[in-house]
Design goal:
alpha+beta; two-stranded antiparallel sheet; 7 helices; 13% strand
């Protein structure tokens, strides 16, 4: 082959242009083939990078929506905590007025505040129950929201794939169910938040040397507490992350994209291939009432 090109070069120097044309065609076709192959390889590499980026974005988006739902539940839990804190401070003021009224000081103010306190405590306790009920609804709706957002983004990125876990209503076993791995926390009773006024009532009843005013205060307090504590609403149980939350709360997306082959000569008939990629993400960094949940990509877990 080297001798052939050497002879062609000699013919070209002697003015035999026809021989030079053959040399030019061979060299040109070789260079063009190398250029076309390079373009095809680059096109495939770009497609793989594009698919990987799209799959990463979809997995991260799913984890981000889980983090948003966790932040919303944490905000509702914080609202429940604030309601209980307000109830406790109402009872602190109420207890101070009750003790003063038992000694004959400020009885009209105590009577007026008792009517107001009953309404306020009842309203805040109902609000706390409502916030806890909303967090349960978000807990149930979160898997469907994640699935819907995943489908929408996959369609936008032109990716065909599947999210794992996929089942939004499977058994709570931490394996194949797409859910927020939360569990009800310890029960919170209204009596816990009203401990200051309950303690004040017990102390007033133990004061034997007080008569008229103390008896009236104790009677009013006893009736008000019985009405509030016997209102029919049970304890509140806020949703908190499970102990093994970090091991169970993750999403994995596996998908593929079509590679549009370029109509390059000498490489055969153009066809469409698919490239595959997988990515995993998780929410992290928050708490039962800490609205600091974020999302991040993680390494693929061992099966």
């Amino acid at each position: 082959m080297i001798g052939y090109f050497s002879r062609q070069a000699l013919h070209a120097r002697n003015g035999n242009s026809g021989q030079a044309t053959a040399l030019f065609l061979v060299v040109s076709c070789t260079l063009m083939a190398m250029v076309f192959v390079s373009i095809a390889v680059h096109n495939a590499a770009v497609a793989r990078v594009s698919c990987t980026n799209a799959v990463d974005a979809i997995a991260l988006n799913a984890a981000t929506w889980e983090a948003r739902c966790l932040n919303l539940i944490a905000a509702l839990n914080d609202g429940v905590t604030q309601c209980l804190r307000v109830i406790r401070w109402i009872c602190v003021v109420w207890a101070a007025l009750a003790i003063a009224a038992a000694f004959g000081v400020g009885l009209p103010a105590f009577l007026e505040y008792t009517r107001t306190a009953r309404k306020l405590i009842s309203g805040y306790w109902k609000t706390a129950h409502l916030l806890a009920a909303w967090s349960e609804k978000i807990h149930k709706a979160a898997p469907y929201l994640v699935l819907g957002e995943t489908v929408a983004l996959a369609k936008k990125r032109n990716v065909l794939g599947v999210l794992y876990p996929l089942n939004p209503m499977g058994p709570h076993d931490g394996k194949n169910t797409l859910e927020l791995h939360l569990e009800p926390g310890p029960p919170i009773h209204l009596s816990d938040a009203m401990a200051p006024i309950s303690s004040a009532l017990k102390r007033i009843r133990k004061i034997h040397f007080l008569k008229g005013a103390a008896k009236k205060v104790a009677s009013l307090l006893g009736g008000a507490l019985d009405a509030l504590l016997g209102g029919g609403k049970g304890p509140i149980r806020m949703l908190v992350p499970e102990k093994d939350f970090s091991q169970r709360q993750f999403v994995r997306f596996t998908g593929s994209q079509t590679v549009p082959h370029l109509p390059i000569p000498l490489l055969g008939k153009p066809k469409k291939d698919r490239v595959f990629a997988a990515s995993e993400a998780e929410p992290y960094g928050g708490g039962s009432a800490a609205m600091t949940w974020k999302s991040r990509l993680t390494e693929r877990r061992a099966k």
